[in-house]
Amino acid sequence: MHPHVAELVKYARDADVANVVEMFTNGSNLTPELNQKLVDAGLQRMNISVEGLTEHAYEKIAGYKINYNQFIENIRDLYNRKDDSFSLYIKVVDHAVVKSEPGKPTIDLTKEEKQFFYDTFGAISDEMSIENIVPQWAETDQNDLTDTGVYGQEIKSLKEVCPFPFMYLHINSDGSVAGCTLDWARKVLVGDRKEHDLYEIWNGPGMQELRLQMLRGERDKIPMCDTCNAPNVCVIDNLDPYMKELIPRYS
């Protein structure tokens, strides 16, 4: 939707600050013209979430009506324009893992719908997947909504340690930095890019204390983290067995 999105991609590539420059999109605004601009800008990966497998399903889920045949052709056009340095990932979600409320059955993709997804997008993508819907956001009832993770893993118990602060930094548009990619509310800020570079923030006191809180089993005392289910449903990594071993490394 951003009128200068291709310029933003080129800026990131020219700055040479990341191994991969990628986008997440529902693909509804792709056009041959925009596709070429993104390819020329050096985009390295695009992740397209297919919101529905028919025009009706798309409108029901996204609240937006599209020409479905044109939607497919625009993705095909992008696939044909790109080279091997550009990876195109296409996904759709299956509702089956969400526990239903009393009297409300769960909604599954049918066998025919799954086959349609593979047949339609398999030839115009480098990777594809049917992902599980999971309650990853904070303020959900932690382990009450699902017993299966996004990768199909069985959810047996809540993790004490969230692996995300050991894996990610999230830089907001104002330069503030969070220790989690899900902290859109900016409740757990660990630094400011306008004042320190990312290497300093990654190894700085804000991130170190956040990691130590996790390793001390104090996730329930951290705003947002206390009600977040992402460590259980969005990542397979489990640091709980290594809590005591890791504490000295971050003290």
Note the topology.
Blueprint: H1 5-15, E1 22-25, H2 32-41, E2 45-49, H3 55-62, H4 68-81, E3 87-94, H5 111-121, E4 127-132, E5 170-171, E6 176-178, E7 189-192, H6 198-202, H7 205-215, H8 230-233, H9 243-250
Parallel strand pairs: 1-2, 2-3, 3-4
Antiparallel strand pairs: 5-6, 6-7
Helix pairs in contact: 1-2, 2-4, 7-9
Compact description:
This protein is α/β, with parallel strands linked by helices and 251 residues long. The protein has helices at residues 5-15, 32-41, 55-62, 68-81, 111-121, 198-202, 205-215, 230-233, 243-250; strands at 22-25, 45-49, 87-94, 127-132, 170-171, 176-178, 189-192. Helix content is 33%, strand content 13%.
